């Protein structure tokens, strides 16, 4: 999409109205993006990235290979990373509505390990495919995270 304030306004209003409703996958939208973007540009994927890392990167590769500058911003809430819950409770899947009873102390360590493994896999696969990846914790001010990301990106561009 050509850069303009009007387009940005439309994108932001559209994002604001989105409500989770069905399980999502990156394959179809990323394939459609490959067809849509005819000129080289900058593409941002901003998401919690709850999908198979290989599928995500496989969807991004054609965009990157076409000469686009692809950046992935992986955004999670601290509770999604640390799993700080103490008491048995039920969690509701926002995409399916299904409720899942959970005893936190029984799965906390395994959950944390799986999340860290997921983050590391995404970071590695993106790096291997010349896709810029940045993890953002929503507790961190956005400007700090962006500044850090841009500083690292500048160093990488000097090497590339």
Describe the structure.
The chain is of the alpha/beta class. Helices cover 52% and strands 18% of the residues. The protein is built from 6 helices and 5 strands; from the N terminus they run ααβαβαββαβα. It has a 3-stranded parallel β-sheet, with helices on both faces. A two-stranded antiparallel sheet has the order 3-4. The radius of gyration is 17 Å and the shape is globular.
Give a brief rundown of this model.
With 160 residues, the chain is an alpha/beta fold. The protein is built from six helices and five strands.
Amino- and carboxy-terminal Cα gap:
26 Å
- Could you tell me the radius of gyration in angstroms? 17 Å
Shape: globular
Structural class: alpha/beta
Number of strands: 5
- Total individual domains: 1
Main sheet overview = 3 strands, parallel
Poorly predicted spans? none
